[in-house]
Amino acid sequence: MTVVADAITRVHREEWARVVASLTRRFGDLDIAEEMAAEAFAVAVERWPADGVPPNPGAWITTTANRRAIDRLRRESRRDDKQKEAQMLYDDTPPAPTGAIEDDRLRLLFTCCHPALAMEARIALTLRMVGGLTVPEIAHAFLVQETTVGQRITRAKGKIKAARIPYRVPSAEDLPARVSGVLAVLFLVFNEGYLTSDPEKEAVRSDLTLEAIRLTRLVHTLMPSDGEAAGLLALMLLIEARRPARVSPSGELVTLGEQDRGAWDRALIAEGHALVRERIAAVSAGQGSAGRYQILAAINAVHTSVGDVRDTDWSQVAALYDQLTRIDPSPVVALNRAVAIAELDGPEVALHLVDGLDLGGYHAFHATRADLLRRLGRSGEARAAYDRAIELAGNTAEVAYLTRRRDQLGPTSA
Question: What sequence ranges are listed for the domain DUF6596 (predicted)?
């Protein structure tokens, strides 16, 4: 039974977005696509324990979902255009069970990121439909309530249906109006894989990070001159390169300064550095300006260019964060900048900057404060900050790390 349950969990993680994309291409309705995909997985939960896991679970789910959708449309066929319904009902050509639907996911990505939708709505919808993230995971990414995310998704799907937004990869002329939303979604999908927010799931989800990289490569191919697409790809590659060293054998997060840099993927780092250099050269030649993802990629290039954390050029990191702050003056950017300032000007200066930020519900804020307070010898305050960070963090590896750091503190002091 456990084997079957694990198989269903794995297939859901790997195939959800592909099934939804395939159904959306065929039936042109996001609600039907999502509902029938969910029904197909529910059928699998009922049948697979008795019948066994099929040889091609993804194809089984897709076929079952298609049949469920056809049955539903047959029941409702009198309500709408009968000729159009009949074409869908009797087009029983089964979808390709393997990689042939990759373009479907790209179409779905651009459909959900249509400029007719508000940016927050299109990002939330795409995270759900393409990224396969749950509503709680999306809420964590946005730092908002789950009900807010649910409302955004419902409104976005309703607008797509009412406005008859086509399910297709847009023309070259349409791409610039959509690409910022697409890149934002891919970045958030990657982030959820980089540090999973759900404590019931594995700490690092390579299925999400690798899929985000694959789709970002496709976007970069579609728009080779778009600096932010290149920058985001570089950023993902440089972060993904560190994945083998990010979690210890005991399941604890390993921070950047403590990682075994010999375990990093040098090929990914070389590819990421090459993209960063190309973008620096292009900006220097007056071909566009450095955007958020390009600057973040440059920061990660600094971190991955040295073999020892002690050789990190923190002044360059701080300067890049200063540049990023000018185009993205968010408190999260300010928090990350403060980490670099701590290395340059000391933890007291950095703590002053951090304490001025309105990020009380963000676990990384409290984790950063805890580390700075620990370095200042203020153990009691550091312990309280660690406690709050542990309470807010959902990632199991991060919780394990924060717990160990808290427990290493000496006796509390005033």
Answer: 178-278
